[in-house]
Every structure is written in structure tokens, then in C-alpha cells.
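Whiteboard transcription, Tuesday session. T.W. wrote the C-alpha cells on the left side:
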């Protein structure tokens, strides 16, 4: 079975993501929100499809500005559903808008989405899935697992012999601090 560490290096889209983002801790709520939206949109599709559309997602969701997205109404929803640059799925668009509002609540209660994640860490994958399902929309086991692995809350993004793994460990992801 192939691993992302075998497939990604040198690829024009997978390579930069694998080498500089995947598995590294994410501090910024806007970046965490972007990753959540991208993972939700990957459901049923390839990650390459999402990475190719990433810039279009950034434009469509106004740089993943949480407050702006949370305030989206019918006009913005219709704009997103008409945008051929992104994945035009009503459930996924609605989840992004709803989840932006959830993040606002978590920011008010915990100071940031990252602080909320840190508050609940460490959890095993199943407990994370249950927490996300109670909190967010469109967050099943694969989406939650990939989101948390890609942002340093769960291990497994890279093989131990992948050169990127040493850089990730130097960045002290949450899973390495708790283990």
C-alpha cells in the first residue's frame, strides 16, 4: 500500500502540501478553518481535486475570514453554489457557513479554535469524532481524522523514515507533546 510520503514528493500540488503543511501544528484559527473546509470538501473526492481548487476556495470564502463567512446569507450561499472554481455542494457550503458560526462561539468561550482543540487534547480518534459530531456539521471519522492528523493533533501524517517527520517533531505537534 502506498503512503502519502511515497506519492507526494515532487508532485506540483501534493509535494508542497506534504513538505510544508501536512502534519505541522497550525496556530491560526483562519488556517484551521480553511483546513476544516477543505477536508469537508474532500469527502467523496480526491485530495488532489481539493488542492487544485484551493486558491479558488480562498477567493470564494474571502480568505477564510471566519466572521465574514459566519455572516453569509442567501446571496453569498447562491454565489458559492454558482462558483465553478470550488466544489458546489449545498451540504458542504452550508456546513462551511454553519461551522464558521460554531468557531465564533468557540472563540468566545475558549479564546480561539486552537485553544478549544488544545483544551480537549489528547483524545483518541473515536472521542475526537464524537466531539466534532456534537460540535460541527459534516464531520465524520475520515474528515476528523485527516483534519487532526494534518494539523498535528493526531500522529500518522508521515512515516517515521520520511524526512519531513523530523521537521514535524521539531515543531512539537500536540500528539508528540502528549505521548
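and on the right, the sequence the group agreed on:
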Amino acid at each position: 500500500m502506498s503512503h502519502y510520503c511515497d506519492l507526494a514528493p515532487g508532485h506540483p500540488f501534493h509535494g508542497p502540501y506534504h513538505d510544508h503543511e501536512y502534519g505541522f501544528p497550525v496556530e491560526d484559527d483562519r488556517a484551521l478553518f480553511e483546513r476544516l473546509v477543505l477536508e469537508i470538501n474532500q469527502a467523496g473526492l480526491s485530495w488532489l481535486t481539493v488542492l487544485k481548487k484551493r486558491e479558488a476556495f480562498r477567493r470564494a470564502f474571502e480568505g477564510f475570514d471566519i466572521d465574514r463567512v459566519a455572516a453569509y446569507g442567501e446571496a453569498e450561499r447562491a454565489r458559492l453554489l454558482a462558483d465553478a472554481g470550488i466544489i458546489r455542494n449545498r451540504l458542504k457550503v452550508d456546513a462551511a457557513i454553519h461551522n464558521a458560526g460554531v468557531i465564533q462561539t468557540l472563540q468566545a468561550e475558549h479564546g480561539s479554535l486552537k485553544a478549544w482543540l488544545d483544551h480537549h487534547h489528547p483524545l483518541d480518534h473515536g472521542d475526537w469524532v464524537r466531539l466534532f459530531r456534537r460540535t460541527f456539521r459534516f464531520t465524520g471519522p475520515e474528515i476528523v481524522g485527516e483534519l487532526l492528523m494534518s494539523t498535528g493533533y493526531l500522529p500518522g501524517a508521515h512515516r517515521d523514515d520520511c524526512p519531513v517527520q523530523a521537521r514535524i517533531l521539531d515543531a512539537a505537534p500536540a500528539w508528540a507533546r502528549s505521548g
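Someone added at the bottom: The two ends are 27 Å apart (CA to CA).
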